[in-house]
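Example 4.3 (complexes with small molecules)
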Amino acid sequence: MKRLTGIPASPGATLGKAFRLEENRSAVEKKHLSSERAEREKERFKAAVNKAAEQIGAIIKKLQDDGLENEAGIIEGQMMLLDDPQLSDDVFRQIEAESVNAEWAVSETFRNYAAMFEQMDDDYLRERANDIADVKQRVLGFLSGESASPLAGLTEPSVVVAHDLTPSVTSQLDKKLVLGFATATGSKTSHTSILARTMGIPAVVACNELLSNVKHGTELFLDGDEGVIMIEPDDVLRSLYEEKRKATVKEAEKNEEIRGVKAVTTDGTHIELAANIGRPSDAAYVHEHGGESVGLFRSEFLFMDRSSMPNEEEQFAAYRETAEKLDGKPMIVRTLDIGGDKSLDYLSIPHEMNPFLGWRAIRYCLAEKDTFRTQLRALLRAGVYGPISIMFPMISGLDELLAAKDQLLLAMRELDERGVEYRKDMKVGIMIEIPSAALTADLLAPHVDFFSIGTNDLIQYTIAVDRMNEKVSYLYNPNHLAVLRLIRMVCEAAEKHGKWVGMCGELAGDPAFTETLIGLGVTELSMSPAQIPKVKRVLLGLSAQAAKQKALSSLGCPAPVFR
Ligand code: PEP
Ligand code: MG
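Answer. The structure with phosphoenolpyruvate bound is encoded below.
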């Protein structure tokens, strides 16, 4: 038995035989041809591109039919690659210049393109190398006449093991056959990982030693919660897995029992349990896990995996679709939170020394006001189709909040001028992610309808600990008194002005903190949909009064007490 570790990319545990995807299924041979034959190679290349485009078109249609618009958008990026005249010209030039076979020209040209992207600093652009490799494999498959699916040989439930999985292959994974997957490269924010989480397939990525240790057919235990892969698990681990599986089934049954139960404490305080989502199709998970509302729609997901900014109509359609799918459940949409670790290749945000302290979120939007108001207009219009609220991210103080609200008023005026219908009583909130906002919450409260505490950022800024840096993660402590006092300070300011406080950072979904957060005065908790039943179960057994006493008396303590 051997233990490998990687990044936990999608939760869940699974046990099964490895199905190794061989990356270079068809080693490409270089053939020198006569110049007439070389001409014919161009035609072969064009035919293969057409077939690949047809196949990609079918995949896009299937994803759209399944309501997976975002996933379809990812694959559309590959269609654009196929349509790129520059790429075809380069393949033609290679065939002509060297009188070589189309396979060789495709292989070389695509390899050069991929290498160019792999060198880039930007994570998103580096990920594009993956798309290029995917399209290359597809075109080569059609050139050699074989099926383009690398998963064609997968006939029994297995754990897929690969150097990397491309987004289009991932989107085609059959959940009945793919128990989970492990890759040697990748990141938590790659399209592949995002797709795995959406599809509920356990996954571990960036496992360096994977390919040198796992052979085709090897028995694996893969734990997507911990980012661990055990090779040839022994009987002890097998029975552990069996216990974990049984516990998961039991938990799902118990979750089902409380799905429709209202989230109230034993002394009658209702706490709204909401979901964090990022695309219209995620609305299904809100219903599935019994979420009362959406406390955070991360709108930047709509802006990713594209080559240009979504226009007002596209955004309006996405927000409206989500509101309609939520079927009357309220939704808070956070305006574009780009920058920091999230970049868009079509926006020229310069490389920064400290991107988390730099030009991100509301700072970007207030500098690029047209982009900002386009989003605001789309949201105002979608508000006619469901109870949507707007939330501004990364507000550091009153001036910023008032400037953002001015833009909202302007967006309303623009819609008035166009005679377009919109939600006139749009509720407006802000995220409390920066200590300066928490410390001045009493000044901000009169100007908002609600606060939502973003602990992911609030903790990193309060303790000065980079949330992305493993080396200092031991300092990332939600129990730090400074963090707890800031949360209480925000709740107190809001209470004085009759406003409510929610939380949408990861802490909101941690059942170990439910009592503390309720005690501090948070009345809405927004989390990954699957966490909702876990938090609800804890909540149903709590007394809000007792939680309050415990939390408030602890705030003056010299050491953290909520362990
Ligand atoms: C947060 O900072 O807690 C938050 C919810 O925003 P994000 O994780 O998207 O930065
Ligand atoms: Mg944040």
